[in-house]
Amino acid sequence: MIDLFGRLEWQELKLLEFFHDPSIDTAVASGAAWMTVVAAIAVIAWITWARRWAWLWNDWLTSVDHKKIGIMYMVIGFVMMARGVFEGVVMRAHQTTALDGGVLSNEHWAELFSTHGTVMIFFVAMPFITGFMNYLIPLQIGARDMAFPVLNQISLGLTATGAALTMISLVVGAFETGGWTAYPPFTGADFDPGPGPDYWVWAIALSGFGSMFSGLNFAVTIYKMRAPGMHFLRMPVFTWTALCTSILLVFALPPLTVACLMQALDRLAGFHFFTNDLGGNMMNYANLFWMFGHPEVYILVLPAYGIFSELTSMFAAKRLYGYTSLVIATMSISVISFCVWLHHFFTMGNSATINAAFGIATGIIAIPTGVKVYVWMATLWGGRIRFTAPMVYMTGFFILFVIGGLSGIILANPAINWQVHNTQFIVAHFHNVLLPGLIFGIFAGVHIWFPKAFGFRLDERAGKITAWLWIVGFCFTFLPLYFLGLMGYPRRSAAFDNPEFLPYMIVCMLGALMLMAAFAGLFVTLWVSIRKRDELAVPLGDPWDGRTLEWATSAPPPPWNFAMIPHIGERDAFAREKADGRPYVTPEYYEDVHLPPNTSAGLIAMVATTAFGFAMTWWIWWLAVASVLGFILWYVVHSFREHPEVTIPAVEVERHHAAWVEAATLNEGVTRDDETNSRNRGRAATDMVVAS
Amino acid sequence: MSDQQTNMHPGLNLGYVGGGKHEESKVFGFWVFLMSDLVTFGLVFAIFGTMRNATAGGPGAHEVTELRSIAIQTGLLLLSSFAFSWASLAMKYEAGRWRFLIWFSVAATSGLGFLIFELLDFHHLIEIGAVPQRSGYLSAFWSLVGLHGLHVAGGLLWIGVLTLQILKFGLTDTIKSRITRLGLYWHFLDIVWIGIFSLVFLAGVA
Amino acid sequence: MAQVDGFLVPFGPVAEAQRTELIWTTAITMIAILPVLVGTPLILWWFRRGNTKATYRPQWHFDTKLEILMWGGPTLIIIALSIWLTQAVFRLDPYREIDAEMAQGMNFEITGAPVAIEVVGLDWKWLFIYPEEGIASVGEMVIPVGRPATMRLTTDTVMQSFMAPGLAGQIYTMAGMVTRLQMIAERPGTTVGENTQYNGTGFPAQRAPVRAVPPEDYARWLDNARDAPALDAETYAVLAHSGDVAKAREDLDRPGDGPLVFSLADPRLFDRIVARYRRGEPVEPEAQPGSPLYRPDRAPLPEVSR
Which positions carry the signal peptide feature in this UniProt record (chain B) (predicted)? Predict the structure, then answer.
């Protein structure tokens, strides 16, 4: 008889854990499970009540519009971030009680730091940057969509699969406990036969395929679909960083996939890649993981650099200083990022020569990074700086990121690394580079491009308060960890025995509460802005006096982005048009626009791979086979069908475009003094005088 | 736009589809995919390299290498690639759907032959106890050879599906573009096999 | 536990050199960072939109001298740091035994022969074997002041990382493999021999004091240990079971608390532990200490020939 449920049994349901064995610990576990289930039911109920299913299906889930896919990535990111932030706060709360103990069980603590890391890297940071690249690349290069719109949707589906599996692990069974790096042999079958590491393996491997395909898609889009005249050296800097990130995605994801699948073979089929016995060697895992892991850092942070580059020049109202330097620096970082992975394990007993070589390589990567910071400073120099919410993030980024850079240089020296590796110093360091470096950039970017996507600005005051909360909260939460690390407190430790640590923990806890408030602040900002959306509306599409092509569309842009594919004569094309007094031109003629039709490919991929991942985790073999065969079969049948493109008639394009141009021409535009008040309708009276 | 646009894929002999620009993107995208796949193979090769001596007292390179069978497999795979090239030429010079399909099926048959011999080898390995659970070396060996085998199996499925599509639709532009990508994939697997052949088998017994 | 402040309060030359590295690296890097920390607020303030006195240069986008400074400055700093770093890596290489040459170069004194210590990481305690002295200790490492400790390390379970911050940095320990670490104490003191690599629920407990004591105290400690019950393969199998030192005391029927000492019945115990994973036979979960299925009676250690 076929085993219908594999090794899955009723007691794996976390919902009931608290009732079997009531304690603070199980209350947190069961509470999280209930929260997940209730939230899911509430969302479904709301959609049903509001009769939004058709809207959700037609306008979003089956859409292949890169803008909508980008927004869906951001939604995944924010939902998962809610979980990640909450876990962080629970961990910090635990640490304040952890002098010789702590409220949570050690097992649960381990699960928390493992899921927090996994969720934040793979299902918050990755969806955020993928979302931004999706939204912006075609708009910035003057294209109508991605090179492969259906593949784009499948990538989204695979990312959703990974996120779904980590959420399911909250309710059924448990996640792994070996940290986001999941080093074997601790996560091997000999030491952890349970479902946790399997959840990790499949969530990461499946979403990893999605990320690889995203990278491929972006790279091809940028290579092949730029508007005529947009040479490589005329591309906006964000597009440059996106290109480098895409190349990194294509080449850096395979090591992760290989590591995950080998780990899966070890666990499921008794192979010996990373086991203790029979020639297995966990050092191979460490190498594979960090061959992915280090480029990953730059995959995440490069697009944020791109956002910072765009926003400095935008809010300083001047041309970007040192474009070529920035491009060279970005390219160098991408190349060098593949040559430094060993600095994650200087402590593995490598020869001094190898340690020194990788230490130096790590130092070298700081050179282009430093250049970038100087370039941004030079961009601000001689500007007319408006201190808007994105600039608040930018300021926090500047000050804090160089501190992260300093700790990076410290860590690059193996002799010091031997003392601070695996301590809280590391925890402080990577939060220091990822929070100000990546997350601040994302939030600044959200503030800037939200009006483009939804047609109204975000409330400036709420946005600024939120930004300050992030900055101050960050300082309180993570800077003390540097000192704890120097005092030798290891990372991932549930308890400590040195009473001197306690004051630091309390400061961290206060910071964590601020960060939670800051996270809530994002939603407050959104709520306030939605209520004031008429006042904040910027339908003409250029609220910040932008320089690049995406601002030369209405807000939100039409599904076809551009009525006519623009011809590019120089960098910052839109800024030039405005300076010359000839923006918003009506083309001589209009053409029909062809767009790819909606498809459910992404959803099918998501359902099939989630079923597969779940089946492999719980050994439900029939479901694993069925989901793979079903997916292949669907795909084969799909390839036999014709997929006629949707044609938007020229008159429709003309109607939309003419209405927008007319409105823009009638509006005389606002100067930057009125940027953040209700007179700003998205037509900029430009400050920029272009010397010709 | 005008009809002056250059056909970006002369090798495909496509009809007029916007200068073949989108098809060219697809082929380029497929190249990028192959590069990523090559990194995957490269890494498994590297892991195999570090595990060459991790036999843990179990069967080593000499026991797992059956040179005669490997030679046959190599021959079959090369033949398959060769036949595929003829199929591509038949497509390019519009020699007709049947000429194309004959070469196409030669490629498929010899690919299938390769797979059968590989499976026989695997069967033999199981018989002599050289299973992947035996040692790190064998884990890496099975993964590397098996990964290539899985790729070949996937390629065979792709050939089958395309054959049906050709029978149904004929050699349309879309299908020609698909065949081009399949061709890249098929020759790519040949190159990977040359790597396996020399680094795993020849170097193993040398 | 006594005052433990990590390598910021070192009592051995290796950790001291590491602290010096930290201070100098920070200082040199500051050259690149201070301009940003100071300059950014000033630029933001001076070039604010409201300031009519500031010159607005919207088209300024390149300056050769500035470019040279931007690229050249960090490059010079990195070159300096790289030279610095390479010297440090070779000088403090954990595989390089502490000898007279090193003592001369780093200006400290060696007053006796090296002490060989073999460290086995267990879940969740450290076993320190002194093969030449014929003793072993669990949960505490003692070294005599002025004599180098030459350590070989492994683990009999998952990967761990041994660090004694007041004396030296850390090194990973991996099953079936041997890594090395060197340290020497210049004066008496206590630091913590901690595991920094998460290895399960008992992880926070895996902290053994590392004490540097005067030679007389060391001799007394050795004598005391030689009178303790013997550590042979059978006792080891029980000791290796997952659990902290207190649990080991319970399992071995050795009441009391604090670190455990043994006389060493088998001087090759360490090599036999390493050999467990190198026999060419599967080591079932039942035979792997640290596995939830571990059974001491099913985990014989292989014999090793010298």
Answer: none
Q: Which of B36, B40, B139 sits opposite A271 (nearest CB)?
A: B139
Number of separate helices (H) and strands (E) present in chain C: 7, 12
* Cα–Cα–Cα angle for A142, A146, A151, rounded to 5 degrees: 175
**Cβ atoms within 10 A of the Cβ of A470, count?**
25
Contacts with C277 from chain A: Cβ below 8 Å = 276-277
Both structure tokens of C12: 């051995």
Q: Which of C18, C40, C203 sits opposite A493 (nearest CB)?
A: C203
Q: Write down all domains in chain B, each with its CATH number in brackets.
A: 33-45+58-205 (1.20.120.80)
Q: Is B12 a residue whose pLDDT tops 60?
A: no
- Residues 624 through 663 of chain A touching chain B, CB cutoff 8 Å: 632, 636, 639-640
pLDDT in tens, B21-33: 677 889 999 999 9
Q: Which of A94, A111, A187, A190 would best serve as a mutation to test chain C binding (most C beta carbons within 10 A)?
A: A190
Give yes or no for residue C220 having a pLDDT over 70: yes
The answer to whether A460 touches A388, Cβ cutoff 8 Å, is yes
ipTM over cut 0.85: yes
CA-CA distance, B113 to B126, in Å (whole number)?
Answer: 20
Question: Which residues from chain B sit within 8 angstroms of residue C279, using beta carbons?
Answer: 57
Residues 49-88 of C with CB under 8 A from A: 49, 54-63, 66-67, 70-71, 73-75, 78, 81-82, 84-86, 88
By residue count, chain B amounts to 206
Pairing of strands C149-155, A646-648: unpaired
Evaluate if residue B9 carries a pLDDT over 60.
no
Inter-chain contact A254–B140, Cβ cutoff 8 Å? no
Q: Is C9 on the interface with A (CB under 8 A)?
A: no
3-state secondary structure of B156: helix
Specify the CATH superfamily of domain C1-306. Cupredoxins -  blue copper proteins (2.60.40.420)
Q: What is the pLDDT of residue B20?
A: 53
Sign of CA dihedral A522, A525, A531, A536: negative
Q: SS3 for A65?
A: coil
Give A145→chain B minimum CA distance, Å: 12
Sign of the C-alpha dihedral, residues C290, C292, C297, C301? negative
Q: Where are the alpha helices (DSSP H) in chain C?
A: 13-46, 64-91, 100-106, 215-226, 233-239, 245-251, 269-275
Calculate how close chain B gets to A397, using CA atoms only, in Å: 33
Which residues of chain C lie closer than 8 angstroms to B57, CB-CB? Answer: 279-281
Report the distance separating Cα B155 and Cα A62, nearest Å. 29
pLDDT tens digits, residue range C157-178?
999 999 999 999 999 999 999 9
Q: State whether A185 and C158 contact (CB < 8 Å).
A: yes
d(CA A335, CA A344): 18
Determine if the peptide bond prior to B132 is cis (ω within 30°).
no
- State whether the Cα torsion A62-A66-A70-A73 is positive or negative: positive
**Closest-approach residue (CA) in chain C for B133:** C282
With contact defined as 3+ CB pairs under 8 Å, the chains touching B are A, C
> Average of pLDDT values for A649-678?
92
Tokens representing B87? 């199929």
Domains, chain A, with CATH or none:
1-306+600-642 (1.20.210.10), 539-585+652-691 (no CATH)
> Nearest chain B Cα to C277, which residue?
B56
Cis before A255? omega within 30: no
Chain B contact for A216, CB < 8 A?
yes
Residue A336: band (very low, low, confident or very high) from pLDDT cuts 50, 70, 90 = very high
Which residues of chain A neighbour B47 with C-beta distances below 8 Å? 258, 262, 273, 284, 288
Q: Do C56 and A105 touch (CB under 8 A)?
A: no
